[in-house]
Amino acid sequence: MKTAKITLSQLESFLMGAADILRGKMDASEFKEFIFGMLFLKRLSDEFDRKREQLRQRDFAHLKDKPDLVDELLEDKTSYGETFFVPIRARWHQSWKDENGDLVPALKDLKHDIGNMLNKAIAILEDENDSLAGVLKNNIDFNAVKGKTKIPDQKWKDLLDHFSNFPPLINENFEFPDLLGAAYEYLIKYFADSAGKKGGEFYTPAEVVRLLVQLVKPQAGNTIYDPTVGSGGFLIQSHQYVEEQGQDANNLALYGQDSNGTVWSICIMNLILHNITRFTIENGDTLEDPLILENGQPRKFDRMLANPPFSQNYSRANVKFPSRFREWCPETGKKADLMFVQHMLASLKPDGRMATIMPHGVLFRGGKEKLIRELLINDDVIEAIIRLPPGLFYGTGIPACVLVCNKNKPDALRNKILFINADREYAEGKNQNKLRPEDIEKIDYVFTHKLEIPKYSRLVDKDEIVRVHDYNLNIRRYVDNTPDPEPEDVQAHLIGGVPESEVKALSADFHKFGITPTDLFRPERPGYLSFAEAVTGKPAIKTIIEADQALQATLKRHQETLEAWWSEARDDFARLENARNGGSKVPDVRQELLASLKRQLVPLGVLDEFKSAGVFVNWWQQIRYDLKTIVSIGWHHSLIPDEYLIAEFFQAEADEIEALESKISESQGELDEAVETAQEVAAYEPEEDEKVTAAVIRKVLKELIDDLKQNTGESAQKELAALMTHDRAIKEIEKRIKDLKDTLKAKTDALRLKLELKRMGGDDFKAETLALIRQVEARIAELDPKGKDDAKKLAALNKDKAALQARIDRTDALLKEIGGPLTPDDARRLILKKIYDIARAELDRYLNAEKQGLIAGVEKLWEKYAVSNQKLESERAATMQSLEKMLAQLGYLP
Fold first, then answer.
1. 75/73 Cα distance (integer angstroms)
2. Strand pairing partners for 498?
3. What is the spatial distance between Cα 626 and Cα 573, in angstroms, rounded to a whole number?
4. Which of 314, 616, 684, 784 has the most crowded CB, counting CB atoms within 10 A?
5. What are the φ and ψ backbone dihedral angles of 500, each rounded to 5 degrees?
6. What is this structure's pTM?
7. What are phi and psi of 415, to 5 degrees?
């Protein structure tokens, strides 16, 4: 029997529903700790219940004749190993007796004083688990006042019910093991978005985190440290990165510190919900009092990643371990940024690497910051400086950069710094800009291979930095990516024509699609062209280019190449199912597929190496959770969208539903017209803001008809007949719509049932019905068929049994009609089709962007040169002549 697994989208929707329950006059960021705390409590309780049942059924099965001993062992925390021990008053499903012997409801059944009871639950949970010391009760208060009031019991009750109605939050129910962690990250981002500027206190955008992780490339066995850990994104993504490389991510030691208690608590919960166990997270100010020590001194690490708070003050008098700092930034003036850099370098092993986000000002400001830059440059620890795009971070428009430091630079990089200016490559967002996967891939590739690309990257000698620029590291001094000025041809503006040089500047864009410009331009005079006759206006440019046969052939060639690539890649994916049993590993598959796709796309000439990688990386990003599911549980039906099942097995039913919806829409249009006509006939004038509906007009018509029925006059009878005709027409259309909607509902329900049976088979349906049949049979066995009263009951019960058996027969018949449930081969084929369709959509998106670039280039020439000044003057003169003639005719001019 197929099982229903919880999908990521289902869990995300569930968590959003939880947030909706508490959302009122509060901002979402104000109640984030409540949702996090409730989720954490429910997860630990569900895992505890699972472990408890496992102990009862398996480990202590030999003691089943000693129930008291079993109960005693089940209340011993040592029985649970690495599973968190949940005391009875913190258990979701279990009631208990207090010291007075009174029965106290389980958490899920609480109705009164809920906030206080939840506080006591998390307090005792923390007390019984040393690893949670200080995490919950000091940072989550379910009785906290928000605004002017605390959250009422009814809200808490609604939230408890919401969590109780969702399946248990245990790994066995998830489509992949890290599902809860992925949903928790989604929730953190939601709260960060809601918090606006304050969101940056606990969340760094995942794309930026990914970039820094790829730059330092953590490996199994590393110690990794984030001195301003926030919600733990850098540590979690480092863990995931090592896992992606096919290494043992559990062989990492993760460390972090944060000054905000609530954020520190969220971080620990985040790590636990990601199934990460090897971590040490401390609560305190890192600059003043680093708490992760070894032999009484700040510990040293292999990798360090951080996004310290920008422009912070600090107190030198409170700083412990001052030897970390070779220079002291001003304590006021919000310039502690390079203090964090010095702390990180002091905490880095001799062969360690670090990457940190910094405000751009640290690269060029004077004073103590310049002295620190001199130390960093002379010590030769800076490997790269990367300028980031604007608007990536919450609540700050301060330009930012990434400082990559390496205490053990290779000889080829001695006294050199790689500058990368990536501030022009990003996706624009409504509230925030975003690094795209291809942007991350390009930065990482250029950094890893130390490539020099005009207007993007350059390897600069220390001598130039010191002698020419006096230790100023402003990236634009070394890599200026300012666009070239737009050419403007004065002659073309004055007398017309398109400069041939500007058309030639687009030759690379024309060439990549095999287009010859002669379809758009024709010779006019030496050095100048004019638009071809077919180009009648700016819209015609797009039409001509998109219809070009060479362009169409180029696009088709790319699609055929992708299809050929996929015919081989599909087999690699098929082997992922056995990744845990010696089959292909995800990192190996990723590397092979990326390399092979680039090898096949780049020679086609439209997408360069980075854009070809962008196609792949965007695609991989969208399917990464599908891959986790395939590796974890195989080709599970939850990965197949309904539309794929419908297209494959139920297209006829879908067509019928679409036809019914179309008929309903048409009939609704008829009804609207009939209502409008009847309103005119009835001369009905609605009240202000009143919506005129069929029901309103029918009521009006009825009143008029009732009023005229008693009148026998010819005129009245004629008017009555007209009103009744309109009334009858409206009712007929309404009945038709109702019948169509009834049919639509029946067919939609039938299709929904077919989809469920196709996914899950009929076992669940039949098992439920068979259980009911057994209940009926048990009741029948209790009755005496000879007794008068029992005979009636028997007749009714036998009727019920027959109805239940008919339900089973219908299920069997329906299963036979739909060809039985999905086979493993069906599921595999449809999932692979979905994965390919996503790749095809990504390739089309990139090709369309290149095509649009060409179209935009030609349209710009149209905007600049289509109408010359000479033509404008001629048209102005003709217009003035017409105006003067008209004025003369009107007698205003002689």
1. 5
2. 529
3. 11
4. 616
5. -60, -30
6. 0.84
7. 55, 35
